[in-house]
Design brief:
The chain is of the alpha+beta class. The longest helix has 27 residues. The two termini are about 20 Å apart.
């Protein structure tokens, strides 16, 4: 089976069409455009995310009510979870992307981001990925973290600690929204193979589609 094309082949206009070249600093605008254009994947994830958001609001509100009723431990667990979610969870999320890239065969991986924009990313310099590889890398944090959250909810059901995992599941769904939006591009060109790679020196992410014969 033929592997992914080389970067030189991707830039051969007779074989591939460049769909987008996105500066890493502008990746958020690109994600927003994918959300607006996609009608297949994003609407379903939006429903999932809305349900988790509502559940997060519910359990946060319930923790506040319980605190006023003399059981502040639930609100304390929620506060610890929120602190974890917006600090260590961000690091873990990106590390999971990096691990998935290493498993896929990427050699040069780097991490970056902007705290001011709350934008974080991992780059695999000049590592070409097709649909299957990209989806595996993009969705690894979603499946791993959400699976851990579900396991925690089951194990600690009936304990105040369950609120930690309930909030973890709710907040992490928002962290994965960008990953889901990026994968949507791979479903917008039926019958055509899509490839992508990062150029770390240029700080640009490229997307290509195989030209129809």
């Amino acid at each position: 089976m033929k592997g992914a094309p080389t970067i030189e082949e991707l830039h051969n206009e007779a074989q591939y069409e460049m769909l987008a070249s996105v500066k890493i600093s502008e990746i958020r605008d690109f994600v927003v455009s994918q959300v607006a254009d996609d009608k297949k994947l994003i609407p379903y994830y939006a429903i999932y995310q809305t349900l988790l958001f509502l559940s997060g609001v519910f359990f946060l509100s319930r923790a506040v009510v319980l605190a006023f009723r003399g059981s502040p431990v639930y609100l304390g667990v929620v506060a610890i979870s929120l602190l974890f979610d917006f600090t260590l969870l961000v690091v873990i999320h990106e590390l999971l992307h990096g691990i998935a890239l290493k498993i896929a065969g990427a050699r040069r991986i780097s991490f970056g981001g902007s705290l001011r924009k709350f934008l974080f990313y991992v780059e695999a310099d000049r590592f070409v990925m097709g649909k299957k590889t990209y989806l595996a890398v993009a969705l690894t944090p979603l499946f791993v973290i959400q699976a851990i959250a579900v396991a925690g909810i089951i194990v600690f059901n009936g304990s105040p600690l369950v609120y930690f995992f309930l909030m973890l599941m709710s907040i992490h769904s928002f962290f994965c929204a960008g990953d889901i939006a990026m994968t949507a591009l791979f479903y917008r060109f039926p019958g055509r193979k899509i490839f992508t790679y990062d150029d770390a020196s240029e700080k640009i992410c490229y997307f290509f589609a195989e030209k129809r014969i």
